[in-house]
Amino acid sequence: MSMLVMTGTGTGVGKTISTAAIAALAAGQGQRVAVLKPAQTGVGPDEPGDLADVLRLAGPVTTRELRRYPDPLSPEAAARTSGLPTLTPSEIAAAASDLDGEHDLTLIEGAGGLLVRFDAAGATLADVAWSLGALVLIVAEAGLGTLNATALTAEVATKRGLTVAGVIIGSWPDEPDLAAVSNLADLPVAAGAPLLGVLPAGLGTAGPEEFADRAKAGLSPWFGGEFDPECFVGRASAQK
Q1: Is the torsion defined by CA of 186, 213, 170, 125 positive or negative?
Q2: CB atoms inside a 10 Å sphere around CB 234
Q3: Alpha-carbon span 60 to 57, nearest angstrom
Q4: Residue 216 is among the residues annotated as catalytic for this protein
Q5: Ligand-binding site membership of 111 (annotated)
Q6: Per-residue pLDDT tens digits for 25-40
Q7: Catalytic residue among 37, 159, 216, 240
Q8: What pLDDT is stored for residue 11 in this prediction?
Q9: Is 170 annotated as a binding residue?
């Protein structure tokens, strides 16, 4: 588990929070952790981006950002509109490999989904994962519509020779509806991989100590957590 590629079924699904949660648990176990954000979009030069949230929540892990674009677009479109240089998979892979050589765990957080383009040639996070031989973690929404997006992401990953390690629900609502509860059983089927965590909505507002505790409760033992999917499904179903 030296390198993990974090991808989402869309924007705003809790990918950065999930990345920070995995980083926090690994760092708490004494591992040397790095988080690579190849492209940050929609953020100005002096504004805090996703890596600032990772540092605030996970503590002093190593972070690296390769490109920053001011427009809230895909990396390829944001580079085009700003006139700034694009990224290539080889550049991202080289940065990840450098970090991997000095750390026990390197997390690579994409922008949006697995096929969001980095450049005009069509390079994507899937290409990066393939070149690194890294496992892919899918961060998904909880409610209606998530099964199709998760299945599409997993199918693309598999057809491109990637291994999906599991799926994490990045923002579990305080009052889940019937679709969200039903999806707890159906998401692993859609992903073709186990449910490795469910993180509560609003977790990003927690302080570092509370964040680490809730991350431990919400993530699988695979990450050093205590999450038991069968128990969680049972509790959620009992509430409906």
Answers
A1: negative
A2: 11
A3: 9
A4: no
A5: yes
A6: 999 999 999 999 999 9
A7: 37
A8: 87
A9: yes
